[in-house]
Amino acid sequence: MYSEKVMDHFSNPRNVGEIPDADGVGTVGNPVCGDVMKIFIKVEDNRLKDIKFKTFGCGAAIATSSMVTEMARGKTLDEALEISNKTVAEALDGLPPQKMHCSNLAADALHAAIDDYRQKQTAKA
Ligand code: FES
To answer: Which of 24, 56, 75, 106 has the largest CB neighbor count within 10 A?
Structure first.
């Protein structure tokens, strides 16, 4: 029922962990199941230099977190904001319909981390 890519990212997730001195942190909870995802970013020259995640959630949530960090790394902030729940699910060759809500966390947490970074920059200015 899961694609090979989902199984790969679930069994062998990329970019797991925390960035202690992160420039932005995004935390999102899934209202459907209560699972939580946290994304940490480091920004340099308006690009995502480093990105890591911690997800307390199901296999599909872990696979989408892993995929979103791979998609976002190296992108400019505006490019990263264009990553959507849909593009993450597509990059994983789809998710079973009852697991689509799990993909909501990944892009939302990434966007929240970028918003957090931008708010901190504005506060500094
Ligand atoms: Fe909670 Fe998938 S069941 S994120």
So the answer is: 106
